[in-house]
Structure formats: C-alpha cells, structure tokens
Write a structure and sequence with these properties.
single chain, seven-stranded mixed β-sheet, 12 helices, 26% helix, globular, binds nicotinamide-adenine-dinucleotide, binds zinc ion
Length: 337
C-alpha cells in the first residue's frame, strides 16, 4: 500500500510503498476513504507524544473507511462495512473499560501513535468488536472522518465533560478542527458561544458554525459574556490560551482542557480557588457514546461536513504536516488516500 512515512521526529515525511497490514486476531483492517489532518498528528511528528516509539512511522488517526479484513476472533464485523473508530482503541477488558471509560483505557492502542495510522490506503485497528462504529449511509466519509477524533472529542468535551446547558455561555479558545466542532456542537445545544482565535479566517468560520461572538484572542471574555463563561475550552494547547480560558470563567465555571500542552503551563490557580472553578480534562470519546452523536448528525442538527474546507491527496501530506508549525488555512483538512 501507499503510505506517508517518517523515519525520525521532525524528519521530512515521504510517500512510499510499504507492506499491507494484516488484522490482529481481535482487530480489523480498514480501507481508508478519508482521514483528517489533526494537530495531534503534528505533535506526534514533532516528538511531543511518548506513544510514538518506533520508526519508520505512519501518522494519521482520524478516519472513516470500509472494513477490508477482520481477525479470527472478531464477531460483529465483516468486510464491506462502512465505519469510523475512536482514535483511542480500547481493550474492552481493563478496569477503565469495565467501568465504561474506554476513552482512557489502560491498554489503549492509537492508530498513528502506538502503531501505524491512517495516512495510508489501509490501516490496522485493534479490538474491532469494542471500537468500530458503523456509519449511517447519510454521513459521507469526509464528514465522518472527524468523528474519529476532533468532532467526537469536542462533543465529549462540551456535552459530557463540560456539561454545557442551553442558555449558558461556552467560550472556545482556538477555532481549528476541535474548536469549530465545539462551536457547532455548543450552538446546536442552545448554548451561547464566544469564540476566540488569532486568525480572521478562523473567526469567520466560527461565526458560520454558530458563534454569537467571535473575537481576537486577548479579548475579555468576562466582559463579552456579561460575567464570564459557564464552560470554557482550551482547544489549542497553549499556556496563554489555557490561562485565558480559566480567567474568562464566571464563578463555579468549568474549564475543559482539550489542546495538548507539551510543557506544564503556569496557571492562575488563585482564581481557581477564589471562584471555585473546575479544571477538567477530556480525551477522545468512547465508541459506546457515539449513537447519541450520530443521531444528531443523521438528523442534520450537527453538520461536521460543513467544517471541511480542503481535501488533499497522500502526496500532499508531507508538506501539509510540516506546514502546521505555521498558521494554516481555516477549517478542517481531509486526506483522500
Ligand atoms: N484531548 C483530545 O482528545 C484531543 C483530540 C484532538 C485534538 N487534540 C488537540 O487539540 C488541539 C487543537 O487541535 P486542532 O486540530 O483543532 O488544531 P488546529 O491547528 O486545527 O487549530 C488551532 C487553532 O488555534 C488558533 N490559535 C493558535 N494560537 C492561538 C492563540 N494564542 N489564541 C487563540 N487561537 C490560537 C489557530 O489559529 C487555529 O485556528 C491540539 O493541541 C490537538 O493536539 C486533543
Ligand atoms: Zn481497556
Ligand atoms: Zn486528533
């Protein structure tokens, strides 16, 4: 198969031909139809993710496609099924999985991190019966790819972890793939959304996704929202954004950390005490939580496809990945292998 491969952190990736993967006994191989380019792929390439331990490595973790083959122990899936998969592939058997917290599985496997990923024609996935999610016909692959990582992560962050309610203010710091997804989800829920970014194109996209207020980072969120946000997300992964998110909350507000912070940030913990704030982390979303999200997508209340602004080929990925150190185009980029 053709795949995007890199031989070391920060070494220029290349598109080459490598062996086709075989499914693990409990897993599946999926023919990739679409794969989103997420900032976590860039973090991985930069060496920020300790799960990448072996080279050559194939990145990519946000995908939709068609089951090509299944392992001998798989019961629920056959070749031909259209699927997506949470990037956290859970074992289904550890203490966290038993408690229903598959998104933080103790033995999790992540395509594009713990093993080869989806910037390829084929990708092997673990524990298919636990993790594969069937896609409704109405949801096309470009829209569905985001359900593998950023759209689903944003859904969990806003709805399950942030517990945003209709009429509440939700602040979203950073309006890339995660942030725009969060804006769309929070607005569909009936929350009032304040979006912040450094790029005008991202702010314009946030308005289209349903933000009531979309302003340059640095704006005073407590002023914009008449007292502060009830829920606020760092959807970037930067000390300044994380601190601004915490400062913009009203008393007893909930900060949800989604962006990856390579270095431990310095934060206004004095405000966390004085305003009784909650600091929460959110990591992907378990397959068991997808039906609720898919129902909203199928009903047209959530439209992840509207966030896609660019489709590229495998051959374009090396340059696109390397360019993520600089400001990129607004919206979501989808790779079509
Ligand atoms: N927790 C999880 O499970 C999870 C899942 C997916 C992604 N992530 C992480 O979420 C983060 C966002 O990923 P993405 O793919 O949406 O990124 P992205 O690159 O698409 O978007 C980042 C956005 O932040 C904006 N930005 C940059 N600096 C800013 C600043 N100082 N203030 C305001 N805006 C700023 C950019 O203009 C851009 O619009 C990354 O750190 C990624 O690794 C975490
Ligand atoms: Zn587990
Ligand atoms: Zn991702």
């Amino acid at each position: 198969m053709r795949a995007v491969v890199y031989e070391a952190f920060r070494a220029p990736p290349a598109v080459t031909t490598v062996d086709d993967p075989a499914p693990p006994a409990h897993g599946a191989v999926v023919r990739v139809e679409a794969s989103g380019l997420c900032r976590s792929d860039w973090h991985g390439w930069m060496g920020h993710d300790p799960d990448i331990r072996a080279f050559p490595h194939v990145p990519g973790h946000e995908l939709a496609g068609v089951v090509e083959a299944v392992g001998a122990d798989v019961r629920g899936w056959r070749p031909g099924a259209r699927v997506t998969v949470p990037f956290v592939c859970a074992c289904g058997a550890c203490e966290q999985c038993a408690a229903g917290h598959e998104q933080i599985c103790d033995r999790q496997r992540q395509p594009g991190f713990t093993h080869w990923g989806s910037f390829a024609e084929l990708v092997a996935l673990d524990w298919a019966d636990v993790n594969l999610v069937a896609l409704p016909d109405a949801v096309d692959s470009a829209a569905a790819a985001g359900l593998g990582c950023r759209f689903a992560t944003a859904y969990r962050a806003v709805v399950q972890v942030g517990r945003a309610q209709p009429g509440e203010w939700v602040a979203v710091h950073g309006c890339g793939g995660v942030g725009l997804s969060a804006v769309m989800i929070a607005a569909a829920l009936g929350a009032r959304v304040a979006a912040l970014d450094v790029a005008d194109g991202a702010l314009e996209a946030a308005r289209r996704a349903g933000a009531e207020v979309a302003v340059r980072a640095g704006a005073d969120v407590r002023e914009l929202t008449g007292g502060g946000a009830h829920v606020s997300l760092d959807a970037i992964g930067a000390e300044a954004a994380c601190a601004a998110s915490i400062r913009g909350l009203r008393k007893r507000g909930r900060h949800v950390q989604v962006g990856l912070l390579p270095e431990p940030p310095r934060l206004p913990m004095d405000l966390v005490i004085a305003r009784e704030l909650e600091l929460l982390g959110s990591h992907g979303m378990a397959a068991r939580a997808y039906p609720e999200l898919l129902a909203l997508v199928e009903a047209g209340r959530l439209r992840p496809g509207d966030l896609v602004t660019r489709e590229i080929a495998l051959d374009d990925v090396p340059a696109a990945l390397a360019a993520m150190g600089e400001a990129g185009p607004p919206g979501v980029t989808i790779v079509r292998p």
